[in-house]
Amino acid sequence: MAEQEIVAFDLEGTLSAGIAWEGMRDYLVAHGEGAKFQRFFRKNFLRALAFRVGILKDERAFRERWILDVMRLFAGYTPERFAEVGAWVANKTFWANRRVAVVEELLAHQANGRRVIIVSGMFEPILQQFAAKLQVESMGTAIEVINGRLTGEIIGQLNVGQPKVDKLQHLPGKLVAAYGDTLRDIPMLELAETAVAVHPDAVLKETAVQRGWRILTS
Q1: pLDDT tens digits along 102-119
Q2: Quick one: CA dihedral 161, 59, 23, 217, positive or negative?
Q3: I need a surface site. Which of 10, 137, 146, 149 has the fewest CB within 10 A?
Q4: Hey, where are the domains in the chain?
Q5: 3-state DSSP assignment of residue 100
Q6: Model's pTM, two decimal places?
């Protein structure tokens, strides 16, 4: 029997140009909880400003801390309520801003009988809603629920960088292709037979050029 062929896609920046924290903010605003985000933003305004003007140099660390802090605004939600958040963000932020050319490649891999998985740092209730639209599997960041309520924290670490590789390496089959958009996706792309850099950041673009990886910007 032939070995199962697997294709992995990142979500934010790869399959979609949507930005997760903006979608989560917009959900709060649309559902009468905008003041919660405004308090958070005022508290973190100087940190955000420092990032925007270039004082904070570690973009990866800033963005990861920011999305984790935004997640804490949903502490106290039931899983059912956060599933509504997931559906809202998946529809209005990610699906509405999907990169059509990349989605078409995903569907082509699927049609060819390959096992397609969206492997992302996105919180699982949001990621699962997006993946369901394409009828594919997903591996994301698990969120913590205690006594039927979200704590606002995640379980373990964000599913970015090496954790993506660790999960993919535990799957039976071979990774024939992987799609990503940032330097944090390089370990996953290195694992694949074919690497595709989608609208890559500067580091990934340089790496893709050096290694002859395909670059997809259409």
Answers
A1: 999 999 999 999 999 999
A2: negative
A3: 146
A4: 5-216
A5: helix
A6: 0.93
